[in-house]
From TrEMBL:
Gene3D superfamilies xref list: P-loop containing nucleotide triphosphate hydrolases
Protein known as: DEAD/DEAH box helicase
MF-aspect GO terms: ATP binding; helicase activity; hydrolase activity, acting on acid anhydrides, in phosphorus-containing anhydrides; nucleic acid binding
PROSITE patterns: HELICASE_ATP_BIND_1
Keywords associated with the record: ATP-binding, Helicase, Hydrolase, Nucleotide-binding
Domain of life: Bacteria
Pfam families: DEAD (PF00270), Helicase_C_2 (PF13307)
Residue intervals of the Helicase ATP-binding domain: 2-146
């Protein structure tokens, strides 16, 4: 198939991991050299995979090198095997556009394309610490702008108290472009060695960059990789993208500039059943009898004789495994631990944020636990997540990373690995993905088989699931036969067409890079009406306006105002700070029924609520406070209240606002990342500011309100005085609140009555959620201040 189509500039090769993908890629590279289509470059995500590809090449007798200056590579006698960042960096030995003679390349193989994309994206982003002159200089220039965008965010940046990210509006960035360029261009290697490898890739397109601050760093990031900056890649006669798990290859169009026609016609084997065997279990979500600690105890037990690998999103989550293992590894120690796992029994190993780019075949990993959704932590990523989190675009990207993670332990068709999903939000994401067909055919079939088995595990202890894992690992014929039948006859999926928006995004960016800003705007403008999701439509309108700003600022601002109507989590113009007044929804049970009725099945609702309640647990994990506030917002709506997040949408006001009926409101400040045993003066002042905001927006003679602080403690510090009417929900009471919310939802789902207002009303009363009972049941008075 490839040979017949080998002269097409872009080709996608889809094969399951372990089905000989690396061998095929190397043979294609060698064949291209034989055809005088060299030199040939084989790109991989990291040095670990570079080493593995090199070993395979040697076994095949294919000459290879890891040195771009090697004459054997330059003369098309050997394949160059390097990590993708070797080609894409500001000091690339392939030479940047306009920097002398670039290295001629005839063929490029991109292995694990899905894993290479975020690495390439990161090369077009520079992050500078708050200790650097550039950070301080940029902060000084944009201080007032940050305050306009978010008062609470600006406060967190200037006090260093939280991890909130605040974006710089593109119009303010355009006004300070020359001075910002000077600051970034003056960054020394002492300030940031990393910057030296990224800045040259970005500096000619600085006007197109997104910029965001936190109290710790500032990030300057191109919205899409400008691949043309390395002509060796874009001018290659052949570019072959090898991918195993991407169900939707549209991301290759937006991020890699792949020809859309190539995406709809991938090269793939006739069958997709060439996949290793997996059982995918969700014990905590399946059975209320199973706790997270039960799963961890079972993992420790398996680890006495097997290698058990846990993938977590952050250091905070990794620390929760410390009672069970000391083998916790991140970037600097990954290579060594992977080598140990591949050669010996290690036991229980935790890997931080390694959802891709790690191979753990055979006994290197027999049980794989995914404990947490892959999170986004850079300033620009935090801004994007706040703006379009929950949209199908973001969900699809997250699903792909989850699937990549689940594939770490199965690296051949005869390999097998038990996979356990531990985070309720992760389970919910995968549950939705299965419905939306965002998973690859093999993973979807294995997940559905496991889900069918799991139905018999409701109300069963962890031993039920542990026995299933043991039987699977022992290659019990009941499992192996069922697994084989599940994947039999599967074929690889491909898109019948590429969404026009994806093509427009990439083409618009190319036009903007060529300084054809009006054309860039018009390409995106033509897609506005086709975007059904309002939040994503607002996001794309904002991107279009950012291009137009560089030639027509007045019209760009008009587009931005319209974008804010679609999505009030994006940049606000100075005239758009007013928060629409939150109205009451009428009968509480009717309102709750209307919200809950959007879920098609009781199980859909239960899975979503599990994830929401997980986010409603206080945590010091980075950016967890945003997830907490979003969860509280949804809980309010599930209880039949109207709810909003003024601080997130306007940058002023409380974290959460509930309209609870009888013209009454709750003004809520959430301190879910707090750990102090007393309430600080700063926190009570924030609650007072939010109360003042409410009084400036609403007639309190008609709309009584309750200022509420969610905090670990009820006791103010000696110098802290609560507002007269303020109350508190301690973390202990919050825990009871979560239990009651779960009970409320479980009761409605168990009888399939979550759409029935009369049943909802009964349960609202039973669990203390009726508006008249809410304050007495779920809030507390502050205690007397602590003694000095």
């Amino acid at each position: 198939m490839w040979f017949r189509r080998r002269d097409e500039a872009d080709l996608i090769l889809k094969m399951n991991t372990g089905s000989g993908k690396t061998v095929v890629g190397l043979v294609i590279a060698k064949s291209s050299l034989n055809e005088d289509k060299g030199p040939a470059v084989y790109l991989v995500p990291n040095t670990q995979l570079q080493e593995q590809v090199g070993i395979t090449a040697s076994e095949l007798g294919i000459a290879w090198t890891d040195d771009p200056a090697d004459p054997a590579f330059r003369q098309s006698e050997a394949v160059l095997v390097v990590p993708v960042h070797t080609m894409y960096n500001g000091r690339s030995r392939f030479r940047l556009e306009g920097h002398g003679n670039t290295v001629h390349v005839g063929t490029v193989i991109v292995d694990d394309a899905h894993a290479c994309i975020p690495i390439i994206e990161d090369q077009f982003s520079t992050t500078l610490a708050d200790t650097t002159p550039a950070y301080k200089g940029l902060l000084k220039r944009f201080n007032s702008v940050l305050k306009e965008q978010s008062l609470s965010g600006w406060t967190s940046i200037t006090t260093g108290s939280e991890t909130q990210a605040v974006p710089i509006p593109y119009w303010a960035w355009a006004n300070e472009l020359a001075s910002s360029y000077a600051l970034l261009n003056a960054v020394t290697e002492t300030d940031s060695k990393d910057h030296q490898f990224k800045w040259p890739l970005m500096r000619n397109q600085l006007a197109l960059c997104d910029v965001a601050f936190t109290s710790k760093e500032v990030e300057v990031r191109l919205p899409y990789p400008n691949l043309a900056v390395i002509p060796s890649f874009t001018n290659a006669a052949r570019r072959i993208y090898m991918t195993a798990t991407l169900a939707d290859d549209g991301i290759l169009v937006t991020k890699m500039g792949v020809d859309p026609n190539c995406v709809t016609r991938p090269i793939a084997p006739s069958s997709a059943s060439d996949i290793g065997d997996r059982i995918i279990l969700t014990p905590v979500e399946t059975s209320r009898m199973v706790t997270i600690e039960d799963v961890k105890a079972s993992a420790a037990n398996w680890a006495t004789s097997l290698n058990v690998v846990v993938i977590v999103p952050s250091r905070h989550r990794a620390n929760e495994w410390q009672p069970y293992t000391s083998e916790i590894h991140e970037k600097t120690t990954i290579k060594a631990i992977v080598k140990r796992l591949n050669t010996q029994h290690v036991g229980l190993v935790v890997l931080i944020a390694r959802y891709d780019g790690v191979d753990l075949p055979g006994d290197a990993c027999r049980v794989l636990i995914i404990d947490g959704l892959p999170e986004r932590y850079s300033p620009a990523e935090l801004v994007e997540a706040a703006a379009i989190g929950g949209t199908e675009v973001m969900s699809s990207q997250q699903t792909q990373r989850i699937e990549q993670g689940m594939g770490r332990g199965v690296r051949a068709t005869d390999d097998y690995c038990a996979v356990i999903l531990l985070d309720p939000r992760l389970v919910g994401r995968l549950y939705s993905a299965a419905d939306l067909h965002q998973l690859s055919p093999g993973t979807r079939a294995q997940y559905e088989l496991s889900a069918t088995f799991a139905k018999s595990g409701r109300s069963k202890p962890m031993s039920f699931f542990a026995d299933a894992v043991d039987a699977f690992l022992a290659r019990d014929s009941a499992w192996t036969n069922a697994s084989k039948d599940a994947v039999e006859g599967l074929t690889y999926s491909s898109l019948s067409s590429v969404q026009p928006l994806l093509v427009a995004e990439r083409d618009a960016f190319r036009e903007a890079c060529a300084e054809r800003y009006t054309q860039a705007f018009e390409l995106l403008q033509a897609q506005f009406s086709s975007i059904s999701n309002a939040r994503y439509r607002g996001w794309i309108k904002q991107r279009a306006a950012s291009y137009l700003e560089l030639v027509d600022p007045v019209k760009a601002r008009e587009i931005q105002v319209k974008a804010r109507i679609d999505n009030n989590y994006i940049l606000k113009v100075p005239t758009s700070t007013a928060e629409p007044k939150l109205s009451h929804l009428g009968n509480q049970a009717d309102a709750a029924s209307a919200h809950l009725g959007q879920y098609a099945k009781p199980r859909d609702l239960e899975v979503v609520v599990d994830g929401i309640l997980f986010d409603l647990v206080p945590s010091t994990d980075k950016n967890s406070h945003k997830r907490f506030e979003a969860a509280l917002d949804i809980v309010g709506k599930m209880l039949g209240f109207n709810a909003s997040r003024p601080d997130a949408t306007t940058g002023i006001g409380p974290d959460n606002l509930w309209a609870i009926g009888q013209d009454s409101y709750w003004v809520i400040e959430c301190k879910s990342e707090a750990v102090a045993s007393q309430v600080s003066r700063e926190y009570l002042e924030q609650l007072t500011h939010s109360a003042d905001w409410f009084e400036s927006q609403y007639d309190i003679s008609q709309h009584p309100y309750l200022p509420l602080l969610i905090h670990p403690s009820r006791t103010p510090m000696w110098d802290a005085v609560p507002r007269q009417t303020a109350r508190v929900m301690s973390f202990d009471l919050l825990a009871e609140f979560r239990i009651a919310v779960r009970g409320y939802i479980t009761a409605l789902c168990s009888t399939d009555s979550y759409r029935d207002p009369s049943e909802i009303s009964k349960n609202l009363n039973h669990f203390g959620f009726a508006a008249r009972d809410l304050a007495n049941r779920w809030t507390q008075t502050f205690r007397a201040p602590a003694k000095r």
